[in-house]
Amino acid sequence: MRMRKKKNIVPRMEAVKSYLLENARDIPLNENIYLEVGCGKGTFICTMAKRHPERQFVAVEKVESVILLAMEKAKAQEISNLRFFKGDVMELANLEREHFCDRIFLNFSDPWPRGRHAKRRLTADSFLSLYKKLLSEDGDIHMKTDNTELFDFSLETFPQNGFELCNVTRDLHQNPPLDNIMTEYEQNFVSQGKPICRLEAKIKAEKNK
Ligand code: SAH
């Protein structure tokens, strides 16, 4: 997500610093968390965190001016079960801790349409091995995108990397689930009449491999 450079970014970051994890090692230890990769301006994860006060949430976003808006949103709503990590999700690969996520959300990830950039897609092999390290045994990934090329790519990479797919749809809003939380991108695409693709992926049990 590109944004114009924000004024006063330093004092504004300071004002929300209780929401920011200084280091990926500071991810809450007490229970299995729900993680969003690329949270953008944070509407989805803030709504999710309010809806599930019993859970801990972590949102990862690499663009400072964008994560700032998400943290300001969380602060304005006094959300206490959500923290933010500013950086590339790949930085979580260096953690000693593994299998601490019950769910990972990928919402409208950058499509990287050119073949030579395919490795940067958040469902490319290296990212899927990272998610396998992060996810608990029963954990899963929920992915939404408007981009059919990224979706088709992911329908191949997930099974190739030991995940099984379920609840796959190419038009989520034809029959929208009551608990669907629209992201900023999703609101935009839906208002343009663009279909939204969605899937869930779960690590296959060892014995079935
Ligand atoms: N989820 C939001 C934003 C989608 S745009 C929504 O649906 O409205 C994708 C976002 O992912 C961008 O803000 C981008 O900065 C972030 N992003 C992309 N790759 C990332 C990575 N490797 N690590 C962390 N954030 C990433």
Write the layout of secondary structure elements.
Blueprint: H1 9-15, E1 33-37, H2 43-51, E2 56-61, H3 64-76, E3 82-86, E4 101-107, H4 125-134, E5 135-145, H5 148-160, E6 163-169, H6 184-191, E7 197-203
Parallel strand pairs: 1-2, 1-4, 2-3, 4-5
Antiparallel strand pairs: 5-7, 6-7
Describe this structure as you would to a colleague.
The chain is an alpha/beta fold. Helices cover 29% and strands 23% of the residues. The protein is globular, with a radius of gyration of 17 Å. 38% of the residues are buried. Bound molecules: S-adenosyl-L-homocysteine. S-adenosyl-L-homocysteine binds next to strand 2 and helix 6.
Task: List key phrases describing it.
6 helices; binds S-adenosyl-L-homocysteine; alpha/beta; seven-stranded mixed sheet; 209 residues; globular
Short description:
The protein is an alpha/beta fold and 209 residues long. Helices cover 29% and strands 23% of the residues.
**Helical amount among residues, as a percent range?**
25-40%
Q: What is the helix tally?
A: 6
Low-pLDDT segments:
none
* Unique ligands: S-adenosyl-L-homocysteine
Order of helical and strand elements? HEHEHEEHEHEHE
**Ends: how far apart?**
37 Å
> Could you give the count of β-strands?
7
Secondary structural class: alpha/beta
Largest sheet: 7 strands, mixed
Rg is 17 Å
Percent strand equals: 15-25%
Shape: globular
How confident is the prediction overall: mean pLDDT? 94
Main-sheet strand order equals: 3-2-1-4-5-7-6
